[in-house]
Amino acid sequence: MSTENSPKHLAIIMDGNGRWAQLKGKKRTFGHKAGVEKTREIVEACSKKGVESLTLFAFSSENWARPEEEVSYLMELFVLALKREIKMLNKNNAQLRFIGDISGFNKKLQTSIADAQQQTSNNDGLCLNIAANYGGRWDIVNAVNKVIDKDSVITEKSIEENLSTSGLPQLDLMIRTGGEKRISNFLIWQAAYAELYFSDKLWPDFDEAELDLALSDYSARQRRFGKTGEQVSV
Ligand code: FPP
Q: What CATH topology corresponds to 3-135+169-218?
């Protein structure tokens, strides 16, 4: 698939790990393990396809409400994945960044995050943003608080510049796997003019061919940003 019409900034809600495992008669955590493998495949594919920025929803601020066993498994899995995937990220010239309230994680995970970010900081290919302990409302409130510390007037531009995604290309496409059709407090400001694509595939079953379907669907859309079809087609 050509890279010409690829979104510059793609976000993915990787949903369906738990159901995928349960359908196989396994524990939900088995699905998360498979989810990490899938993440690697999709990161490498995006790198190849010329996506500049890929933002993945790994852990929402609401996910703390899951059973304690699942939450601690995820924390350990993130530590392991970060350690293991640095090589792959460097091979793909991908830079890792975390967005979200990292201070909510335990020290071990915070250290792994800082190490992984540091070890990929010289890469200038794909920017891989992992949203962890992230919520879109949190992002906006956080940005507004930063602005009011400096300015008396709040503008769209000033909020934009203080969001966790500041400096990244505007969000072009958001994919959600797993069949649900909602954005679940992910990048709610940034998604204002993003195209949305919903896949019924559970995340561990999503693959490069499914990504290609989403990208070709995206490339056939006309993005109008409030204008008329005639205005944007000239
Ligand atoms: C959604 O499935 C997935 C999560 C809550 C987060 C876990 C994501 C991964 C393990 C893959 C990414 C890993 C890294 C390191 C970026 P779900 O549990 O909500 O599935 P369900 O809807 O079937 O219950």
A: Undecaprenyl pyrophosphate synthetase (3.40.1180)
What's the pTM? 0.94
Position 111: which residue type?
A: T
Estimate the crossing angle of helix 107-119 against helix 68-91, to 10 degrees. 10
Q: Is the pLDDT of residue 1 over 60?
A: no
Contacts of 32 (CB under 8 A, 6+ apart): 17, 18, 21, 70, 73, 74, 77
Rounded to the nearest integer, the mean pLDDT of the chain is 95
pLDDT digits (tens, 9 = 90+) for 141-179: 999 999 998 888 999 999 999 999 999 999 999 999 999
* The ligand 1 atom nearest the CA atom of 22: 23
With a cut of 80, say whether residue 112 has pLDDT above it.
yes
- State the pLDDT confidence band at 105, using cuts at 50, 70 and 90: very high
Closest CA to 133 of 68, 69, 63: 63
Shortest-distance Cα residue to atom 6 of ligand 1: 58
* Tokens matching residue 228: 């008329």
Instruction: Kindly give the distance from the C-alpha atom of residue 121 to the centroid of ligand 1, in angstroms, as a whole number.
Output: 25
Q: How far apart are the first and last CA of the chain?
A: 26
Residue 130 Cβ < 6 Å to ligand 1: yes
Asked about 162 being catalytic, the answer comes back as no
Domain-wise residue ranges, the chain: 3-135+169-218
